[in-house]
Specification:
The complex is a heterotrimer of chains A (277), B (409) and C (294).
Chain A lengths: L5 H29 L3 H6 L11 H9 L2 H32 L4 H13 L4 H14 L5 H25 L4 H8 L4 H12 L1 H17 L2 H7 L8 H11 L4 H32 L5
Helix pairs in contact in A: 1-13, 3-13, 4-5, 4-7, 4-10, 5-7, 7-10, 8-9, 10-13, 12-13
Chain B lengths: L1 H18 L10 E6 L6 H14 L3 E6 L4 H10 L6 E4 L4 H8 L17 H7 L9 E2 L2 E2 L1 E6 H6 L8 H13 L12 H14 L3 H9 L9 H13 L12 H9 L5 E5 L3 H7 L5 E4 L11 E5 L2 E4 L4 H14 L2 H11 L16 H8 L3 E3 L9 H15 L2 H12 L5
Parallel strand pairs in B: 1-2, 1-3, 9-11
Antiparallel strand pairs in B: 3-10, 4-10, 5-9, 6-7, 6-8
Helix pairs in contact in B: 8-16, 11-12, 16-17
Chain C lengths: L6 H32 L17 H6 L3 H33 L5 H9 L6 H23 L2 H4 L9 H13 L1 H12 L3 H9 L4 H29 L3 H6 L11 H11 L3 H33 L1
Helix pairs in contact in C: 3-7, 3-8, 3-10, 3-12, 8-10, 10-13, 12-13
The chains are: A mainly alpha (277), B alpha/beta (409), C mainly alpha (294).
């Protein structure tokens, strides 16, 4: 055990607290503003609300299909992630075991190269293509997310797989296992840490994404996601910013609740794949 | 391999099922997508739609008002997926390009457009001689003023530029804020630039000359003075123009934090929303250099029908005719505070009346933006905002040359 | 040594890649090739016909002041973002790794910004800078703060940077923290017995273990710095004037506001080249460094 230095200890806590306050102030303001009436906000922007005023939330829920949007966001995120778990590690495994072959090398390079392509290059052509294929819809959006997860996903999984010793699967082959069975029973379980990482990183990205749902789902507002709803709401109720803040809070709420209960797993998930013990 | 196939299949069927859980409607009811771009009138259109649907049980209208509407519409048109009915601004470059490209129904001889005033349709006819829009309202701009504050301090409406400046001085001397400038949103400054180009100088002639390669904006003394006027006027503004957005500007004026607010009449519904009790009206911004005071006008909102299958077009036509009827036109004009582009609608807004009187008397000029080179509008917004910041006249004049469409060497 | 693969196995491996090849090929490579093609046309984004104009858009890029301005902005912005985030992540990571009370609570708070959507971050800070910060300025009579910093062309750079750091520091910090867990505690104790100073201890013993995480952080922050779009779009839209006009914002304006989609595509592809070159350089340099250290 390291020796404790009391002055250093206090300083450390002070610094950490200062940082934590900086991080939490926007959240604090969001919460108190959402709970105030406009006149309370005008009187003081920072003060706690005088009473527990919940009408803003009632108004937001009354003026929108909040629960529908919430369900849409969950569906899109969950199905995209499920697809990613099924396909990306499989692809990466094939690539890693065949890096000496031209085909695998090229497709791997192409996916990694995608990381650097700004979305604006492909934006209009993609929407054009999806429209022609009748894919401007839920399944289309999910396919698009799935496609984009290959970029970073393949890069990270291939890196991770490289660190897994070959001997493990050699013995499985000796026992007569097929390539697929070896992957499924030997390799896939080993990939859990990296999968956890991808679920957290891509889950946050898909859940919070604004532009793709805007472009793909604009037609039918019953298909909207929470970020779309929230931007929309702010646009329309711009003069009633207590209401706008209530909508911010409501669109953040599911993620915050999930985070409160799962923060240990979420934070360790991010790092699991990144650090090869 | 099979297993993966099965899992994939289950996955995507699942997604497809979830997605198709939407509404199924019977064959005799048609639902139209109404792509509504004007934020200020969303609530108004909800009401209009309710009335329309009550009369037409076989047509449902779904108003879609979305963030970043311009970007969304471009992506929709790029993929040849035009909405059924939409609101648009007939002087915008994206409207003109899309109409010429054939995305909208030609309404030149269409009965749906009969409700609109011919003279106004004439002003939005495109280069091919056709018209694709049913104009609903006219916009203009001027100076909003807070009636209560004016009465309280016994202030008079200025008739000349000198009186206007004297008024500003007087208000400032009382320790109050004469004007509010929402300069954080560049388009609000660009709007002022377009107006002054025709009010304080002969911008039309200058643009024609620059386009023809016969003049250089950098040589125009009038243009230089006009740019300097932007800096000068801001000495009468609130403390922090560049930190104030359009919404915040409206909010400040509506709360009585400034005596005046130079803005387009499209701000009226928002001002009413921000403070329903505010008592306010408008006057025309006086011209400088002894020129006659006139006001700008332009078609504000217009309805456009997407070029689709006949059944959709027919239903859309019904809706457009309904909105363009005198009764609904009246409702729109009264709520929006704008003069109507429709026949049989009387104008009775107290707020914008004094400015609209100029349009009615013919003391007006058409919004100059249609003379700009394509994309010039957006570019001029940034250029004038940048000038206010760095006062770099050379850079500003050079940009104006591009915006006016000077031929490239 | 890897075992030789049978033809059947090779076929299986190839099958594994098929979903990726179909999805990625169709939904990414095809649009990408189309985008490259459009960058050589005068397409306005919506017309059905357009002209092939060769490399003219690319030639025009470098004669446009706003393009040069946006490259300067993005590079400067990326430089500061990379420096601040990586230093801050390291400091916070070390502090959180120390033997402190409420460690988990602090860790949870410091990761919090990563779960909030950029749209909300932009909108909330927009309100804070308009309503809240000037009141602090009034309270303490700091003239500089009494105005909305987002309207101040000098300060707005730092405002946007601050919000980006606020939001984007979380993941690098957590990664550093995880990297620190890989440092064997015996090594640290041994160095304490040897009487090494804290800085020496950090440099010689701890830092080598952090190099892999560090290089990952570097590559990620450089990329997100140069490509910055969402935060600026949500907060300033590139303004005031052109003060925060990043390459991403300019692409948006040229493409959707001026309807010069061909030009915007050429601009995005040059952004791609910039990022690709920088990242490859970075990775090469870091690889050699890494190899030298271990």
């Amino acid at each position: 055990m390291r020796q404790r230095n009391p002055t250093g200890d206090i300083l450390l806590h002070l610094l950490l607290t200062a940082g934590a306050v900086t991080i939490l102030i926007p959240l604090y303001i969001t919460i108190v503003t959402a709970l105030k009436t406009p006149s309370e906000s005008a009187a003081s922007f920072f003060a706690l609300p005088g009473s527990l005023y919940l009408d803003n939330f009632a108004a937001v829920l009354g003026k929108s299909h909040y629960f529908r949007f919430f369900l849409n966001s969950i569906t899109i995120t969950a199905v995209s992630l499920l697809g990613e778990i099924l396909l990306v590690p499989l692809f990466s495994y094939a690539v890693v075991r065949n890096m000496d072959r031209f085909y695998f090398k090229v497709i791997f390079m192409l996916t990694v190269f995608g990381i650097f392509v700004p979305f604006q290059v492909v934006m209009l052509p993609t929407i054009k293509l999806f429209s022609r294929m009748g894919l401007l819809s839920f399944p289309g959006l999910i396919l698009l997310y799935l496609t984009y997860t290959f970029k970073k996903g393949a890069f990270l999984f291939v890196g991770y797989l490289r660190s897994i010793p070959l001997e493990l699967e050699e013995s499985a082959y000796m026992d007569g296992c097929s390539v697929f069975k070896t992957y499924l029973f030997i390799i896939f379980p080993l990939l859990k840490p990296m999968i956890a990482t991808m679920i957290v990183i891509d889950g946050l990205w898909i859940w919070n994404d604004f532009l793709l749902p805007l472009l793909v789902l604009n037609k039918n507002h019953l298909q909207w996601t929470l970020p779309l709803f929230q931007f929309q709401f702010k646009n329309q109720y711009t003069f009633d910013f207590n209401l706008a803040f209530a909508s911010f809070l409501l669109s953040m709420a599911p993620m915050i609740i999930l985070y409160i209960f799962m923060q240990k797993y979420i934070i360790s998930g991010i790092t699991k794949g990144a650090i090869k013990g | 391999m099979k297993r993966i196939g099965v899992v994939m299949l289950v996955l995507f069927t699942g997604a497809a099922l979830l997605w198709s859980g939407g509404t199924q409607e019977s064959d005799d009811v048609i639902t139209l997508e109404f792509f509504q771009q004007k934020r200020e009138v969303v609530d108004l259109f909800d009401e209009i739609i309710a009335r329309f649907e009550a009369q037409n049980p076989d047509i449902r209208i779904e108003q879609v008002h979305i963030a970043d509407a311009g970007q969304v519409l471009t992506s929709r048109l790029a993929s040849n997926d035009v909405p059924d009915v939409l609101t648009h601004w007939p002087n915008n470059v994206d409207y003109i390009e899309a109409a010429l490209e054939g995305y909208f129904v030609d309404l030149s001889e269409d009965p749906a457009a009969e409700g609109a005033l011919e003279s106004i349709i004439e002003s939005i006819r495109l280069s091919n001689g056709r018209n694709y829009a049913v104009p609903i309202s006219i916009n203009t701009q001027g100076v909003f003023y807070n009636k209560d504050l004016f009465a309280q301090h016994d202030l008079q409406i200025p008739q000349t530029w000198d009186e206007f400046i004297a008024l500003c001085d007087q208000i400032q001397a009382m320790g109050e804020t004469p004007l509010i400038f929402p300069d954080k949103d560049a388009w609000t400054i660009g709007q002022q630039l377009r107006m002054l180009l025709a009010l304080d100088m002969d911008g039309y002639a200058l643009i024609d000359a620059v386009k023809a390669g016969k003049a250089d904006a950098a040589d125009s003394q009038e243009l230089k003075e006009l740019a300097q006027k932007f800096i000068y006027l801001r000495t009468y503004g609130q403390q922090d123009p560049l930190g104030t957005s359009y919404d915040q500007g409206i909010f400040e004026f509506a709360k009585g934090n400034s005596f005046m607010f130079w803005q387009g009449i499209w701000a009226i519904p928002s001002i009413n929303k921000a403070n329903p009790e505010l008592s306010y009206s408008m006057f025309a911004l006086p011209a400088e250099h002894g020129r006659k005071t006139r006001v700008e006008y332009g078609v504000d909102l217009a309805l456009v029908i997407g070029n689709k299958d006949q059944r959709t077009i027919d239903a859309a036509r019904k809706f457009v005719s309904f909105v363009a009827s005198p009764e609904i036109g009246q409702l729109y004009a009264d709520t929006d505070g704008s003069p109507s582009a429709l026949k049989g609608v009387t104008f009775n807004s107290d707020v914008s009346g004094p400015v609209v009187a100029y349009v009615q008397a013919g003391d007006s000029f058409r919004n100059i933006r249609h003379k700009y080179a394509p994309g010039g509008s957006s570019r001029s917004n940034t250029a004038i905002q940048q000038y206010i910041i760095d006062k770099d006249m050379d850079n500003f004049l050079n940009e104006m040359n591009m915006i006016f469409g000077r031929p490239q060497q | 040594m890897a075992r030789r693969k049978t033809p059947a196995e090779r076929l299986t491996y190839t099958t594994f890649t098929l979903p990726a090849v179909v999805l990625y090929g169709l939904f990414f490579m095809v649009p990408l090739l189309l985008g490259i093609y459009y960058s050589m046309t005068d397409w306005n984004g919506i017309s059905q016909s357009y002209d092939f104009i060769d490399l003219e858009n690319y030639r025009n890029l470098f004669s446009d002041n706003r393009v040069l301005n946006s490259f300067a902005f993005s590079l400067r912005y990326a430089l500061y973002l990379v420096l601040i985030i990586n230093v801050l992540a390291l400091i916070i990571g070390l502090m959180l790794n120390a033997n402190i009370r409420a460690k988990n609570l602090f860790r949870a708070i410091y990761f919090f910004p990563a779960i909030i959507s950029l749209v909300v971050v932009g909108l909330v800070f927009d309100q804070i800078f308009y309503h809240a910060v000037p009141r602090i300025g009034d309270l303490f009579s700091i003239a500089f703060l009494q105005r909305n910093l987002m309207g101040n062309p000098e300060a707005v750079f730092w405002v946007v940077l601050f919000v980006s750091v606020w939001r984007e520091c979380a993941v690098p910090t957590v990664l550093i923290l995880a990297g620190l867990q890989t440092v064997p505690s015996e090594l640290i104790e041994a160095s304490i017995l040897d009487g090494a100073g804290s800085f020496m201890q950090f440099r010689k013993i701890v830092f080598p273990f952090l190099i892999p995480v560090f290089s990952m952080n570097l590559v990620l922050t450089v990329k997100s710095g140069i490509m910055v779009f969402d935060i600026i779009k949500g907060m300033t839209g590139g303004g005031p004037g052109t003060a925060t006009e990043s390459i991403g914002i300019l692409i948006y304006k040229k493409g959707f506001e001026e309807m010069r989609f061909g030009f915007a595509s050429a601009l995005s592809l040059s952004l791609f080249l910039l990022i690709a070159v920088i990242s490859i350089l970075q990775i090469t340099v870091l690889r050699t460094k890494e190899a030298g250290q271990l």
